[in-house]
């Protein structure tokens, strides 16, 4: 905007929003649907047209600003002055226009339960081969049952891609003249578009999409072109990083979530406090009815975290926003920033509740497919008894010790191996009055027995000893009760869903997609309740569990193939210690020597023990490993 005009900043914003962008859209209107619509358009002919119109209307003030802009453009001929076209979505053709709070139109489309909607999205990504190119434009909106409803909050997805009215073509604006509201009509909920101010004949109808996404690519592509003076620059907010994630990452890591799940599974009942907290959050029979007690108890614990996060987030968001704005602005209104932080925190709160509702809907569907009645679904986690722990670690089929002996066999003398087996049988802790205490001592003995056996690049007995040390100091182990796998009936995906690029490759007609839910899908989705874009949350769970929740395989330290080498250096122990002390809820890196089961049936770790006992990681265990690090550094 020209600097030599006498217009205020507000006047300039209004000129851009109400005059410049409208004139731009009119100039390119004749190109719409021709296939030749330009994505950018030169500003000069637009300004010239505004100038001519202003001269005809004897609006000399606008004439002066136009001439000032044209002089500025002319003085910088090498610069390109262009605008991105926005286009007009829906324009008011009602001669008398709309008054404030008038009903404009109902939003119509196909209604999907959330589990089926996300099945369809998984199918689209599958047919697109998970290509990084963005999906086609979407026209869906959530129809949410209000939290104040007698049956509580819930939601469905209204998809206007195939069957719809013009409401789905209304554009976003950061300063809209309408809003989308859920209203009850004849006992049924519907989404209505209502005016928030007077709308004149010929004026574009807009509302604030006010949506969020977990996808960085989708967020970056959601550029807003509304041109209003309060434009946020995009019509999607990203909730997957930055200040929105601070409290989640600090207080709700994978071990924290497992603690909540373990508590819920072991209690397997719903308290009055649980129902009270769920009710305060607006969750009632519509969402919770028919679910097993352990799952309702887990939901209550998640709601308590969501409430706690809501109180902490404004401060984190405010700090983040201030740091960002101070790089570009000298004067910042703290009161406005605090208000914005509160609004953003409330948005995150509502999104968390929505994600919880979607997760429960997905899990309920899978449980219904498997058990008929979801209430029959057993708790997915069960604590091992002392005898079961002995079977898992010491003497059962496939136990830690049995696997160790099998791995050692090619690398040690038969006499040494047989002697070790004999001693292991003698130290069986099963008959002890203190089974777990005796088991720990037996494991520590085994650690010391193999620690100083000769190592090669094919076998690292010392690494195996360090791992046995971790198992010895792990107090609690849990069994995963996997449900059976189930494949859902097909959903149908049309070329329109896929977009032109992919529909050409796949051909005409609808495509069938049947989603298979693995035996640990429910556990994975419940642990990653805050994320809905994981096609296979059970696999994500096992990847995230490596090291912090599920300790490495003992076979990590023994090469099964002739060419494979086992490198175990001070850096390996140092990395392990750093993870345990500084990043206890992070998975261990794959590039190290460790290997992990792709689908462990039992898990437990000293880091999980610390979370369950609300303490730090066992100092005695860590001290021994630090001494080992010093010892190994001397050797290297």
TrEMBL record:
Q: Which domain of life is it from?
A: Eukaryota
Please list the residue ranges annotated as the SET domain: 75-210
Gene3D superfamilies given in the database record:
SET domain
According to the UniProt entry, where is the signal peptide?
A: none
Q: State the protein's name.
A: SET domain-containing protein
Q: What is the lineage of its organism?
A: Eukaryota, Viridiplantae, Streptophyta, Embryophyta, Tracheophyta
